[in-house]
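Weekly structure sync, notes
Attendees: PL (lead), two postdocs, one rotation student
Agenda item 3: pending single-chain targets
PL asked that the sequence for the first pending target be pasted directly into the notes so everyone works from the same version. It is reproduced below exactly as submitted, 241 residues in total.
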Amino acid sequence: MFLQIHKAMIKAYEALSHIIFPSSCVGCQRELTISEQFLCLHCEDDLPLARFDSLRENAVVDLFFGRIPIEYGDVFCLFNKKGTVQRLLHYLKYMRQPEIGRYLGLFMGLQILTRPWEEPPDYLIPVPLHPRKKIIRGYNQADELAFGIQRVCESPVLYNMIRRQKNTSSQTKLNRWERYLNANESYEIENFENLPFRAHVAIIDDVITTGATIEGVGQAILAVRPDIRISVMAAALARNA
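Predicted structure, written out during the meeting:
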């Protein structure tokens, strides 16, 4: 009885908060209804989904070919400058809205379950932030994406088994070679000896551009556990990747 009253009070509070402090769609700035979250239904339906129909027609698999071996590569959307996806990720990373990461992670997890050639990974590994950058931001956006994926796939998240050794600069304005140098040899692996033989892990990131960051994480993992099977998951893929 108390639990039902508590849930009713929370719903009433959320409805009242929506009336007093209405939320706006990240995409079009239209006021959201109570049933909408971050995006209105129109903008959500209009997202540029990455429709990979098989492993043979997959831009992520092609991007990492010859760099690190991957089981599959999966992204939710295609990234367009000044588009809705860019605004979502900007709010996630710089506007202190970690809930957007969990929101996108749910879609990423559901996408795996709808693709017969993609088995849910045994573990999720978010790309780490340097501790100093995480303190400034307050959270790691890849952690939030992994949390959302976990709610659907039920794969455990390994939060602290990879650490960034140096505080690399932002990669948004770097070219492909500069990104590689920025990400290379930046990660420290811990406790991977406890994972089962040939465990399947998915590296989680927000955006794939050149793939340098994920390649750096993947190489660090394979250096200590070459038997590990790796997949790649991201919220978005840059069109020029």
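Discussion points:
- Residues 12-21 have pLDDT under 50 and may be disordered.
- The two ends are 54 Å apart (CA to CA).
Action: rotation student to compare against the earlier draft before next sync.
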